[in-house]
Amino acid sequence: MSPGISRAPYVTRISCGAQNDVRSSPTNTLWHKDFGYTGGIRMEANRPSYITPPLGTLRYFPLSEGPDNCYNIDKVPHGHYSVRIYFGLVKEPSFDNEPLFDVSVEGTLVYSLPSGWSSHDDEQAFVETLVFLENGTTSLCFHSTGHGDPAILAIEIQEVDEKAYYSGPGFGRGTIFRTSKRLNCGDQNPKFDVDYDGDRWGGDRFWSSIMTFGQNSDKPISTKSTIKSASAAPNFYPQALYQTALVSTDNDPDLTHTIDVDPNKNYSVWLHFAEIDPSVTDVGQRVIDISINGNIVFRDIDIVRIAGGVNSALVLNTTIPVSGRILTITLHPTTGTHAIISAIEIFEVIPVESKTLPEEVKALQSLKLALGLPLRFGWNGDPCFPQQHPWSGVDCQFDNSSNKWVIDGLDLDNQGLRGFLPDDVSQLRHLQSINLSGNNIHGLIPSALGTITSLEKLNLNGNLLSGKIPAALGGRLLHRASFNFTDNAGLCGIPGLPTCGPHLTVGAKIGIGLGACVAVVVIATCITCWWKRRQNILRAKRMAVRDAPYAKKRTHLNHIQMTRHHHNGHHHEHTRTAVENGPPLLV
């Protein structure tokens, strides 16, 4: 995206551990709450440096939750980004107040926290990278190294111009720039771009201040003149950056600055100039040579001529390998008596590491859930990278045909796994060895496992697996594959295991079980009804036996009254039968 585009660059800021959105002073910057990005524990935070934003919480990742933990941020538009991660200290006296751990961005290791980082008010309080993000997501991971647990205070992701820090053909896609040092020469106070009212497409960069390069009293100068941008200086650099400078003195006409770096790395060096010295007004009055670690990298630099006039910006860039731990920049005047410089930026150039095939990463994540993998395994980020932090129990190899890493081995024996084997395991089609022995894995062996033609060793012994061994796996035993299915009481179907009976699917087994339950209920209902009916019949019989004497007396009296009625027929109309009057009272 070019700076002239009217839309604002994408930006998201996360206050790690925050339960609500917060704003930080003095710029009233919005920081979003930390929800749904990662695991870990919310903790109160101590601020290690004035550079870090004034936020009160952080996200803490104890080793019990795994050695590798990641923030996964979705819906990040394709583009060029400045990604900055601030480190924090847990606000608890019992905690190690300076954890040392590694940081990776998109699977590439970019930083290892040095001892003493929390006592420096400089770039050591955060890590900043320039990276192209192309997959719609951002993965930022923190890897334990055995020296305290990671604690992250805040994360910033800011879109910058696609041509920012353009360093030549192949720029950006195969490399990540990590900020090693950024100096504003001649300014008394360190600042962010926002303090300079910098262009929004440059990112909110932090600039350390420096008033002298060494023991010599280099002369700081400044101007209020507007600085013109040249084609060599993209206009997303803040104006104020070029309104101060350091100028060498008569005692030492050279300007020399030394910076500590990591050895055996490549560094991209960016040198910023503007001729703001009032004593220089025209071409040819100041010409300098620039050397790095004793080698001249730029000759005959006439700032006025190259930039197109005084008060005009000029940016020079070169990339150099450094074998030692020192990077020394020297500006030597070949015409005129003094050297001048406005700002310096130094980036470590980090090759982007190839990632693991996405379908194999997805299959491992499915396996993680299905097996109920303990938290201590982690299994976050990329399985194979950074190379210093591969997933525990996972073996990787590079696949030249896809230019990606693939999974060729799983070794998770005796880990207390209690889940099942998912069908997605067949997506790990480069597997040569699987060892899941000595666990409590249950269920069937997926038939899709037999489609992994590269599989040479399979140890599933000592589990709770059941059902028939897939035919494709059984056939592999004839091709010198080494499979072990012993100590699974429910497995059958190959020599050495029981013969299988009629094989029922899980659905069929569930159907039979439900049918049996229904039958039991029906039988129980019938028995209950029969028992109740029988009790009613027996109760009726007992009542009939109890009432028998009363019935005999009643029959005798009726007989007597019927006889009397026969002999006194003429009184018929005035006499009621015994049946009508009921039984007489006996006294």
TrEMBL record:
Keywords carried by this UniProt record: Leucine-rich repeat, Membrane, Repeat, Signal, Transmembrane, Transmembrane helix
Residue span of region Disordered: 564-587
Predominant localisation class: membrane
Biased composition (Basic residues): 564-574
SUPFAM superfamilies from the UniProt entry: L domain-like
GO CC annotation, single: membrane
Entries under PANTHER family matching the protein: OS07G0107800 PROTEIN-RELATED, RECEPTOR-LIKE PROTEIN 4
Name used for this protein in its record: Leucine-rich repeat family protein
Organism per entry: Solanum tuberosum (Potato)
Organism taxonomic ancestry: Eukaryota, Viridiplantae, Streptophyta, Embryophyta, Tracheophyta
Gene: LOC102597169
